[in-house]
Specification:
CATH topology: Neuraminidase
CATH class: Mainly Beta
Largest sheet: 7 strands, antiparallel
Helix content: under 10%
Distance between the termini: 9 Å
Number of domains: 1
Strand content: over 45%
Strand order of the largest sheet: 15-16-17-18-19-20-21
């Protein structure tokens, strides 16, 4: 894998009175100079009021303009936005996939997943569409063997664990169904899958291990990312352990170059990191390299990360939220080049 070098940083959005978080980024399918960002604005990390902000850039991410905003609040709507993702579907539409919740307590909240769809590359969006998908923190929708797949996870209070699900659509995203469990284990508490299509042979899912144990120093023990694979999206098995300590990976794979990229919240070297690798015929990583994009303090570990990742030729853009010494987190973008 070639060498990575950080080029510059850019603050995308900041508001000391609001909690800005959970950004994603994508390059336009129709114009390589155009990029989109979506993020959530809220009153708190677990909010009572929220907005999704949709930003456009027509100059390869050098300048950004907010073009759409969608509000949701407990008071007016009974639920709030949570964690959005951007993706294109085979019908050519640009989609924002986002979950909502009806309580600040995620253990008892009811989660629903909505899709905001645009057929003119983000100029206008259709009415917000409620899917049949349940669960929280949905991944990008992945096209695999003529079906669409979307991962999300649910809270299992009865067994005090989390269950990572995979949803399927066989009609281009019009209807969605629970198709199978990717991972469920009381010990590991799997969640927040990021899924890639590996050469249309496998779906590879990179999962957060959400166990929360403290060291003798009173700090959270970092956990390794676990990996699962399926050749049909229905039947899953453990495919190894990625030697990375992190939360909420965002993974991209480019088959022609055989390049794998993953940005994530680094729970060992606290901050935002980017992994690069190549994949062998079984989808296992080799020649791995990690670059630290930005450091954060341990006290802010749960107020940073949840990255978005996009590629333009030999340039990568990682968008993330981070708090530093601010009252509330803000949205930031790092631009990198590789040779």
């Amino acid at each position: 894998m070639s060498k990575l070098k950080i080029q510059d940083y850019q603050i995308i959005a900041e508001n000391e009175e609001k909690y800005l978080s959970f950004p994603d980024i994508i390059q336009s399918r129709y114009n390589s100079d155009k990029f989109f960002i979506v993020y959530r604005e809220a009153d708190y990390h677990h909010p009572t009021s929220s907005f999704l902000h949709f930003l456009k850039s027509t100059d390869k991410g050098l300048t950004w303009k907010c073009s759409k905003t969608w509000p949701l609040s407990m008071r007016d709507d009974g639920h709030v936005w949570n964690c959005p993702r951007l993706c294109y579907l085979p019908d050519g539409s640009l989609n924002i996939v986002c979950d909502t919740k009806n309580s600040r307590d995620e253990r008892t909240a009811e989660f629903k997943i909505f899709i905001l769809k645009s057929f003119n590359d983000g100029t206008t969006f259709e009415k917000i569409y409620k899917t049949r998908m349940r669960g929280m923190v949905p991944d990008k929708i992945i096209d695999f063997k003529k079906n669409l797949f979307c991962a999300n996870h649910v809270v299992d209070l009865e067994n005090n664990t989390l269950t990572q699900l995979m949803n399927i659509s066989r009609d281009g995203g019009k209807t969605w169904y629970d198709c199978n469990i990717v991972a469920r284990n009381k010990q590991y508490r799997f969640c927040e899958a990021s899924v890639i299509n590996f050469k249309n042979k496998y779906l590879l899912a990179y999962l957060r291990d959400n166990r929360y144990n403290l060291s003798a120093e009173g700090k959270m023990i970092p956990r390794l990312v676990r990996k699962f694979a399926s050749n049909d999206g229905l039947h899953w098995k453990l495919w190894g352990t990625l030697r990375v300590y992190g939360h909420r990976m965002t993974c991209l794979y480019f088959e022609k170059e055989n390049k794998f990229f993953a940005s994530y919240r680094n729970t060992k070297d606290i901050g935002i990191s980017l992994l690069t690798a190549e994949l062998n015929d079984l989808g296992q990583e080799r020649n791995k390299k990690i670059i630290q994009i930005e450091d954060e303090t341990y006290d802010n570990l749960f107020h940073c990360g949840y990255t978005g990742l996009a590629k333009n030729e030999n340039e990568l853009m990682v968008v993330y939220y981070i708090k530093k010494d601010k009252v509330n987190p803000f949205i930031k973008l790092c631009r990198l080049k590789y040779e």
